[in-house]
Amino acid sequence: MPQLSSETDLNLFLPADEDIYANFLNIGDEITDNTSGSGPVCAVPCEGAGQKTPGPRCETIFGQGGMSMDMKRFIAGAMIFLAAALCAVDVEAGKKIGILMFSDEARYIEAARGITDKLKEMGFGEPKTSFMTDKAGANKALAAELVQKYAAAKLDMIITLGTSSTVAVSREIKDVPIIFSMVYDPVDAGIAKAWKSSGNNTTGTSTKMPMSKPMEVLEKFPRVKRLAVLYTAGEKNSESQLKDLQAVEANYKIKIIPVRLATVEEINQLLPEILRTADALFITGSNLVNSQVSTIVDMADKAQVITITHLEDLVGAGVLLGVCANSYSMGQFSGEKAVKVLKGAKPSAIPIELAKKFDVILNMKSATKGQFQIPPAFMKTVTKKIE
Description:
The protein is of the alpha/beta class. It is built from 16 helices and 15 strands.
């Protein structure tokens, strides 16, 4: 607040009519008249009420013959505070947010919907907040171009969906808050320095889970002894999922077989042999593998090889089993963090958090199509079915 040194300074902030001050303050004694040179006339019983000269109560509030210096200081401060509050509202109303998805996979779209719904619920919806939404089409070169577009757009926040898009944005943009969702391991991917605090301009939620969960599911299928993990080198989320499965392999009687895939042609060439030697396939978050999931599932069903994933939308696309976090709920969770940042919190002060709940999902269509025998012990653990 500016320092006011004289009554002349104060008068710069104040209108001339003292009725305005009284009405503004709502001090209890309604002012109904203002006689020139004699002060206000009170409408409630007090000494001086209804008279041409102010009584003691009026003089206490306004001073003899007018408003006191202390009262002028108080009202000036109140008016400046109100103006500042209104300015803060105006600033909040003009937010510009970019939303970048690495591809148009269903989980990214659902998570983005969860985020924007939460922002709207908390007062940051359109048209108050403007959104710039882009999809990179699973193309890293296009993603890099979009990052430059976002860097030049003077955004108040960037929301990223998926590990690849988050890595691309966080490497290049350091001065805009980044809120992410549907990222498997942000620390291993180099997005954040630690889970408790990113140490930079990022925060968000992670789909990382204990890989003991899908392994426990597979143990309920007695014939599963060999699990082929389909992944793509260079895709951090895919590599992390393989690494986490290998870390728990010794606890189960299931052998992990890494299968690195780099092109669609490799999938078509290698998959028939893989299906002859594996009892189950783990579908990682590899964008390449996900783009061919229908082909992979169709071939696996015909060979009666179980498919399993940690991604809900892939179960919807035909994968037989899933141990998954809900994409929309994860988006809502990230949306809560976005709201905190928009209200002034630093991303590094907001911990990165994991999903709180995982569904065990069975695709009944795939079970019927592949004529799979579903063990009763597994059926007891199912929390969601896709009919």
